[in-house]
Amino acid sequence: MSMINYASREINCKIVYYGPGLGGKTTNLEYVYEKVAPTMRGKLISLATETERTLFFDFLPVDLGTIRGFKTRFHLYTVPGQVYYNASRKLILKGVDGIVFVGDSQVERLDANIEAMHNLYENLTEYGLDVRQLPFVIQYNKRDLPNICSVQELDENLNPDAVPHFEAVGSRGIGVFDTLKAVSKLVIKSLS
Asked: How far, in Å, CA of 120 to CA of 125, rounded?
């Protein structure tokens, strides 16, 4: 749920990158952080324990315009990839305005993708949310690797509602900003 800061004339929106462990969520955020001008972004914060890491930062996009005289500021989060950190995943989803599901395109990771997607649906349901009514996009990451699922197979298993999807190679920045722009525009549209 977006927060309005009247003093700074900003609407703060929360976008969560969700998906299986080692699928590319952190790589996406680190790439965006590196490319956004330092004057337009906040500090990159990593909340880490011995075995999990959650990244967070905010940025103020310059090209998305204003909503009723307010600028939009996006706060980007990743969740821990492993499902056994479900309490952390659930907490990070609280108040979400938009979701990017980052799927790992490798054939051997299909089951992990499916498990993470089911986990996302379950956690949203606990907050009374339906992913079909939220700004939601899917990114099929690691498209440069040799043993990958076809986009059709990924869609059949992960995208039954035919939400916008993007092919990406997060480590090289391919598709990273396309994905972010798409979810950002959906969030802005939902606020209008």
From this structure: 9
